[in-house]
Structure formats: C-alpha cells, structure tokens
C-alpha cells in the first residue's frame, strides 16, 4: 500500500496554518507531535456527548465512558505487542511511569549499595527518579557512555553489570541523537543475571514497531503526546512478576478493594497502580491516536521516516559549517546541531522560527549527554510521519540564512 503523505498531512489541521507569514514547518515532534483530526474529534465527542466518571457508575454515560476508556488498555497492549492487557498501567506519561517504578518497585526492593545502570543518553525523566533512590536509600548510579558516533554499545552496558546491579534504566531511542539502542541484547543479558530492566520507549514507539514481548524487558513506558495523542496520557507495561513485587505509588479511589478504619486492602493490578479519577478523555484520545498509527502501519511510518532521515542527513552534511551531533548509522530522523561560531541554539531557533520552521533549542532534558558532548545546548529538528523532503529543504534554507547572519 502506497504511503499517501498528502492524505496524512490533510489529517492534521494545524499543518495548514502559517507562522510569521510562512507555511508552518513543524520539526519539534520530539517534544510533542501534532494531533490528527480524528483525535481532536474524539476528544470533542467525549466531552460533548459521552462524558462521565469511569468505573462503579451504573448509569448509561458512566458505562459508556468506562467501556471506551478500558478499551484503550487493549489497544496499548496491541500496539506494544503485549499478550496480556492487564500488564498495561495507565499513566499521565513517561515521567509518572518512571516515578511509579521508582516508588513502587525501587523503594521496596533496593537497598544501600545496590546499583542502577544508566546510559549517558537518558532523558531526565529516566534519571531523576533514580536519583531519588540514590539520595534516600544510598543506591549507586552507574553510567555508561555512548561513543563519538552517538552509539551505545550493548556490550558496554553488559560489562558494567556487577553482582550489585539490580536494575538497568535505558532508553530505546535517544531524544537528542536519534540513536536506536539494542535494548533486546541488554535485556537478555540482564534477565540471565536476574537484573530488572526499565526501558524508556517515549521516542522509539513513535518511530518504529515495538514488540515488548520480543524485547524481554520488565518495564516499558510510552507517552501519549508524542504518539499524536493528548498530553496527560500514557502507559507503562509492567511484567506480572514485577507487579507482584510492587507497592502502590499513590493512594485513593479505584486502587483499593476495601477501606476501613484500621485496615486496607489493595485492588488487583493494574487498578492497584491507578489511583483517583484518571485522565479519562486523554486516554480515550490516546486510543484513537494509536488506532490511527496502526491504521497507517508502523512499518510504513518507519519506512517513510527512514527516507526522510537519509535525505536530511545528505542535505545537512552538505553544510560544512553545521555541527551535527551523533553520526549513528542506526538512528531515527532526529538531528541535533550547532553552528560554528558564537551563535547560541536559542538564537538559531529564533531565526528559524521567522522562516516558519519550528525546532527545539536547549539541553532537551538531557544534561548528562550535553556534558558528554561538550556543548551547553543544541538545536534539534525532529521529524514525524507527516513531514516531507520539501520541509527538509525549508530547514536547510533557514539554516543558510542563520549562517549568513552569524558568520
């Protein structure tokens, strides 16, 4: 089936607007992706005609909202290749997911001197929750660097394992460099040693097919706003054995079975980890976004973005004054760069915005990686399923203007 980029772009209303008198070229997808009309319509429909609180309600609207909300669990499981949808826990995004693991699993299963291995490429969401355990329990964080191409050698992670290693927290795809990490090899080695693996799928799940059962990890987190869904939506896969070792992170409605003055009993997973009124409409929107992506086909999306990556790499490599960070042969269509000279990433981003090109500037919530690369900040152009080669050309034209201004 042919990848119909024009039809896909037509599904995203915001792509038809102008910014600063120029057609919008949206290349900030690594931060948040835009939303197709089916997601926007589903959110409007839910609030306008179908809204009620979920679970326990016996009236029509509550049952309808509950059915639509709970159906998303199965969609997430299908999207991630998880056989049992009850191993899917809803969260507000990856940040909450990792804090859930830190408090729910780490705080009750780790002790002083235990080690958690991290790569230098991790997003702060996959760093700070483990720092909590370092500060409060005396857990040791062990760091593994990527090489000059931005690749992370899985053997380097395996070599960092010791008898004290209890967890590996690793990204599947770097949000700064676009590097795809061989997490399957890392998970296999960890599993053989009884080490728990926690994988950040925030970027990977957007750009390529993911099969969690094949990867063999214990935890795999995704966030809805990068998956063309609403902000405040997301989920984490938790292996059943890990669920059994966990305590609830938050207390409230839904996560309990019985509450009395002197006793309390928890609900069964996944409800045990979902306290309070959830993001009902956000999760329904996420389900529609996943349906949309699966309808297009993750293989087809990956092939389109690979073509974009190759074209963008060729065009950007032709700018000998542009410093592109990370040269991995196996990367997504994500490019972080600086210009030779004194131009700050924020200045570059501002000039690009005047040409209608939206990119991200800063440390991208990855300060250890910035320190490793020896730069305070970069600009990042991150592509999505709806971007085109014409938009790559628009980026290059805007960068040439930057060079003329700052050279």
TrEMBL record:
Matching entries from CDD domains are given as: SufS_like
Aminotransferase class V domain location is 25-395
Q: Which cofactor does it need?
A: pyridoxal 5'-phosphate
Pfam families found in the cross-reference section: Aminotran_5
Q: Which SUPFAM superfamilies match?
A: PLP-dependent transferases
Q: Does the keyword Repressor apply?
A: no
* EC nos: 2.8.1.7
Q: Which reaction does it catalyse?
A: (sulfur carrier)-H + L-cysteine = (sulfur carrier)-SH + L-alanine
Q: Name one GO molecular function term.
A: cysteine desulfurase activity
Q: Which InterPro entries match?
A: Aminotrans_V_dom, Aminotrans_V_PyrdxlP_BS, Cys_dSase_SufS, Cysteine_dSase, PyrdxlP-dep_Trfase, PyrdxlP-dep_Trfase_major, PyrdxlP-dep_Trfase_small
Alphabetically, which GO biological process terms does the record hold? cysteine metabolic process
Q: Does the keyword Coiled coil apply?
A: no
What are the protein's UniProt keywords?
Pyridoxal phosphate, Transferase
Superkingdom in the source lineage: Bacteria
Q: Per its UniProt record, what NCBIfam families does this chain match?
A: sufS (TIGR01979)
**What this chain does, per the record?**
Catalyzes the removal of elemental sulfur atoms from cysteine to produce alanine. Seems to participate in the biosynthesis of the nitrogenase metalloclusters by providing the inorganic sulfur required for the Fe-S core formation. Catalyzes the removal of elemental sulfur and selenium atoms from L-cysteine, L-cystine, L-selenocysteine, and L-selenocystine to produce L-alanine.
**Similarity comment:** Belongs to the class-V pyridoxal-phosphate-dependent aminotransferase family. Csd subfamily.
Q: Return the protein name.
A: Cysteine desulfurase
Q: Which organism is it from?
A: Thalassobacter stenotrophicus
Gene this chain is encoded by: sufS
